[in-house]
Design goal:
Alpha-Beta Plaits; 205 residues; 7 helices; four-stranded antiparallel β-sheet
Length: 205
């Protein structure tokens, strides 16, 4: 019973730290599914601690597998001892949770697969009368999944021609038709994702 409890605690700890390591990137996807946009800014503070959570997850699962694979001491008696383990003590459960945990850790690298790729208009230049360009500084973006989430909202604004968003630079550069939309409308669309536009600047043609 004690061993089973230890195994359960180790598995829960490892899975929790794995989820925490990528929660800042998982949250945007949850907003797409559940619409709870406010949660994004609440979890963005986790990003600086991501390497620590990843390291802790690796340590926890390395320890769990060491405990599972190390040779067991044999009892000093001739009696038959039942060796059948419960599912909570099995390698099968540990394998499943290990794969799940590392899928969580790697989530930022494949998060973009969950977002529909928005289409951008081609062959339109800023020299065309009425077209403008603006740069938005955005707080809260921490991974490529955040970038895809912002882009998916920008593309819903009627009149947007082109855009380029970078989470590491914390900016989005948007070209748009000034007769169909405004810089404030684009900023509102970005803010609707849960990230926050901290500044917006028009760029002269």
């Amino acid at each position: 019973m004690i061993t089973s409890t230890k195994n359960s605690t180790t598995i829960i700890t490892g899975l929790t730290t794995a989820i925490a390591a990528s929660l800042c990137c998982i949250a945007p996807l949850l907003t797409v599914v559940g619409g709870a946009t406010g949660m994004i800014s609440s979890f963005s503070w986790i990003e600086p601690f991501r390497p620590h959570f990843v390291g802790l997850t690796i340590f926890v699962f390395a320890f769990a597998w060491y405990q599972k694979l190390r040779p067991q001491k044999q009892a000093d008696c001739a009696c038959e001892v039942g060796n059948k383990q419960s599912f909570l003590q099995s390698k099968t459960l540990l394998s499943i949770v290990t794969v799940l945990a590392f899928a969580m850790i790697l989530f930022p690298y494949y998060a973009e697969a969950f977002y529909k790729k928005p289409q951008q208009a081609q062959g339109i230049t800023l020299e065309t009368a009425g077209y403008k360009q603006a740069v938005f500084t955005i707080s809260g973006m921490t991974c490529e999944g955040c970038t895809d989430h912002v882009n998916s909202k920008i593309t819903t604004v009627k009149g947007v021609i082109n855009y380029q968003t970078s989470y590491d630079k914390a900016i989005s550069t948007v070209k748009f038709d000034g007769s169909k939309t405004t810089i404030d409308s684009i900023a509102a669309a970005i803010n609707s994702t849960g990230y926050r536009v901290v500044s917006q600047t028009m760029v002269k043609n």
